[in-house]
Amino acid sequence: MTANSLDRAKQAVRTQVWDVLTTAEAVYDTFVHGRIPHFKGAEQAAARLAALPVWQRASVVKAVPDKAQLPVRAKALEQGKTVYMAVPKLATLKPFYLLDPAALTVSPVEAATSRIAAAIAPTVEVEALRPLDLIVLGSVAVNRNGARIGKGAGYSDIEFALLTEAGLVTPETVVITTVHPLQVTDTPIPTTEHDVGVDLIVTPDETITCPNPHRPTGVDWSALTTEKIAAIPALMARHIS
User: Fold this and answer.
1) Residue 69: DSSP 8-state
2) Buried b / exposed e across 62-78, counting CB within 10 Å, b at 16+?
3) CB 32 within 8 A of CB 19
């Protein structure tokens, strides 16, 4: 499958899921296309996740800044877990916000919002992160084998690759996505070498363990354009070193 046909196939899955969510009125977004869906039931999915032993053992969580995962970030901070969250588009040389629950000057729920986190949290470079126990991803669609797709920008995959190369993602790190049940699709999801699979899918109603999800071993430079590398300082630093 060529890169263009792969992109078209992924977009077809995204469109199918966005349409189904819209028809079912399963999201808070007035227009969900082009977004990680802010799905109804996100709080219940976070509560289900928080009841899992793998969550309870974790002390360091890297989470996406999307609204659907806000309840997950808030629970992590409420329970004393350190949370890292990416700077939008990884646009700074220190591309992660550090949310230290012991240093918060606002409530965990406030600190977990992307806008307030950007105002109060220090940024840190990749090498300054602690090893990650859990990585929480947002998804547009995911299947029971652990293949997932986001909205198409590719930042979660790049973050994962950078963190893997830095030794912060280990075989013990658990990758999770929280989604609406309608986002769990039986439609085949085409994947590439740089796509990150998930170990667990958590919906408001179900926890799905995925068999042997794919994990990239590092940055797939062949999949990145010169413009993309130049736009992400942490990538550029590695590219020229």
Assistant:
1) G
2) bbbbbbbbbbbbbbbbe
3) no
CB-based contact 235:224 (threshold 8 Å) = yes
Separation CA 88–CA 46 (nearest Å) = 23
Name the DSSP letter for residue 27.
Answer: B
Compute φ and ψ for 169, nearest 5 degrees.
-105, 120
- Cα separation, 12 vs 27, in Å, equals 19
Closest C-alpha to 76, from 54, 101, 53? 101
Residue 39 DSSP symbol: B
Q: What's this model's pTM, rounded to 2 decimal places?
A: 0.94
Per-residue pLDDT of the chain (241 residues; tens, 9 = 90+): 677 888 899 999 999 999 999 999 999 999 999 999 999 999 999 999 999 999 999 999 999 999 999 999 999 999 999 999 999 888 899 999 999 999 999 999 999 999 999 999 999 999 999 999 999 999 999 999 999 999 988 788 889 989 999 999 999 999 999 999 999 999 999 988 889 999 999 999 999 999 989 898 888 888 888 998 888 888 888 877 6
SS3 sequence, 167-225?
Answer: CCCCCCCEEEEECCHHHECCCCCCCCCCCCCCCEEECCCCEEECCCCCCCCCCCHHHCC
CA distance 151 to 155: 10
